[in-house]
Amino acid sequence: MLKSKLAAEGLFDPQRKKPIPALPGRIAVITSPTGAAVRDVINIITRRYPALELTVVPAVVQGDDAPASIRTALRRAAALPDVDTILLVRGGGSIEDLWAFNDEALARDIAKCHIPIISGVGHETDFTIADFVSDLRAPTPSAAAERAVPELSILKRRHAQATTALRRGLLNRLNYEKSRLRACAQSITLRRIRDILDRRREII
């Protein structure tokens, strides 16, 4: 019933979802500070994109106190300076363990947040209201981390390829312009020779 209600209000519409930054400078991670999810996220992000500033905003992610704790953490994360993306993650568990992410007030806070949010809650087969309202749903916390940042080695390879292509293009253009100048110079020289010969013929 809640899913139908929020869907009817447009909270799940793709048009309202914010794009995820391709090159984030700072990411806030909302999760339990002691769970496996936070370790996985930190390891993946620091390995893939070590230049990133990563801030963990701790929250209770299970039990009766979890919805209010996650909402508070979301407000804190959104208030941090220069945050480009927020990850809302927790590891797998039973449907009861994940129930905090079906909270209506939390869903509305996620929808109102001005910073793009990636959810990674539970396992691949788990879906919560938070997943539907977030700007991007990842199947696991690890997948959320991977989708939040590019891989630096790939960026370096693409940069090297682009630099090589640019250098090759400039060299080709330079050679083309040299050929044009050479042809123009030859044309000018031939024209001058003809002019000189024509004047001599006139004199003779």
β-strand number = 5
Structural class: alpha/beta
Helix content: 40-55%
Distance between the termini: 107 Å
The best one-word shape is elongated
Side-by-side strand order of the widest sheet: 2-1-3-4-5
How much is the radius of gyration in Å? 30 Å
Describe it.
The protein is elongated. The chain is 53% helix and 12% strand. Helix 4 links the parallel strand 3 and strand 4. A 5-stranded parallel beta sheet has the order 2-1-3-4-5. By secondary structure, it is an alpha/beta fold. It is built from 7 helices and 5 strands, in the order H-E-H-E-H-E-H-E-H-E-H-H. The N and C termini lie far apart (107 Å). The model has no long low-confidence stretch (mean pLDDT 87).
Quick summary:
The chain is of the alpha/beta class.
List the helices and strands and how they pair.
Layout: H1 2-8, E1 26-31, H2 36-48, E2 53-58, H3 66-79, E3 85-90, H4 104-112, E4 117-121, H5 129-133, E5 136-137, H6 141-148, H7 152-203
Parallel strand pairs: 1-2, 1-3, 3-4, 4-5
Features:
5 strands; 204 residues; alpha/beta; single chain; 7 helices; elongated; five-stranded parallel β-sheet; 53% helix
